[in-house]
Amino acid sequence: MENPKPADAASCPTDESPKNWEGKFEEVETGPQGAVPPVVQFKNVSKEFQRGKERFLALRDVSFVVENLPDCGEFICLLGPSGCGKSTLLRLIAGLEPHFPPSSGEVLVGGKSVAGPGADRAMVFQDYTSYPNRTVLKNVEFGLEIQGKPKAERREIANSWITKVGLQGHENKYPYELSGGMKQRVAIARTLAVRPSIVLMDEPFGALDPETRYAMQELLIDLWKEMQSTVFFVTHSITEAAYLGDRVYLMHGPPGRLVEEIKLPRPEESPLEVESRADFREVVALLKSKIHGKSETTDR
């Protein structure tokens, strides 16, 4: 199945929302679209790169819909092996060249065809992207400066996010003085401070040690619950996708194609607590069998 049908939108967290992993996972069925335009929609999107006489098809005929839920956002993990087009898909949403524009098909955000980068979308990369000549505070303020926020307002907002990501006391440090995990906290604070509708994250925790990665996953979920933006999160880690995602988009390739959408319960426990559960491990094993086959190991 190379073009799965759009999934039903997940409900926002309530007292009745799933609080454990009973029921494991469910494959999502098609649901009717509401009157509000979808947050993101891909219509038969393909992307081909050309270098000289060589051509490479990175994505082939990808279609999906992420509905616009009232006062709520979904956390969508793009999961698959290297070369299956996860990062290309992310950059098409962001409107970033050379991945954008698509070779065929259409990418829509808020019901409008993407024409390039926009203030409604923000991206966190795997590489550390803090500005080396700016302090932590000035880095977090950067997007607010672009928005034209007055100095006092952007300082207040930046300090609030620095506290939320646990960097209070480090406001005047420069990136070279920070650990990898601290640098990604700066990137997350800078991204969320401008309150984008869509947050795009390309393996942001891939270079971190396991302990720091656990902490960053838990921090991200806490911040996302407060923001309720729609998040697209690229990862190679099956356990990370199973913990973070409301939905997991399983991708195969090359050429990259979306083969399945799976809906998961929202996490209510820390990554370490969840991963100790037998039912969670069963979910991981099932996802693993769909991506890699039974013979390969799952790691973070």
Please tell me about this protein's structure:
The protein is α/β, with parallel strands linked by helices. It has 2 domains: 26-120 and 197-291, Rossmann fold, CATH 3.40.50; 129-195, no CATH class. The chain contains 8 helices and 11 strands. The strands form 2 sheets. Strands 1-11-10-4-9-8-7 form a 7-stranded mixed beta sheet, sandwiched between helices. Strand 5 (104-109) and strand 6 form a beta hairpin. It is globular. 42% of the residues are buried.
Q: Which secondary-structure class do the elements indicate?
A: alpha/beta
Radius of gyration from the alpha-carbon trace, in angstroms: 19 Å
Fraction of residues in helix: 25-40%
Question: What is the CATH C-level name of the largest domain?
Answer: Alpha Beta
Count helical runs.
8
Task: Pick out its properties.
disordered N terminus, 300 residues, single chain, seven-stranded mixed beta sheet, 8 helices, alpha/beta, 31% helix, Rossmann fold, 2 domains, four-stranded antiparallel beta sheet, disordered C terminus
Summarize the structure.
The chain is 31% helix and 23% strand. With 300 residues, it is an alpha/beta fold.
Task: Note the topology.
Layout: E1 26-27, E2 40-51, E3 54-66, E4 75-79, H1 86-94, E5 104-109, E6 112-113, E7 121-124, H2 136-146, H3 151-164, H4 180-193, E8 198-202, H5 210-227, E9 230-235, H6 238-244, E10 247-252, E11 257-263, H7 271-275, H8 278-291
Parallel strand pairs: 4-9, 4-10, 7-8, 8-9
Antiparallel strand pairs: 1-11, 2-3, 2-5, 5-6, 10-11
Helix pairs in contact: 2-3, 2-4, 3-4, 4-5
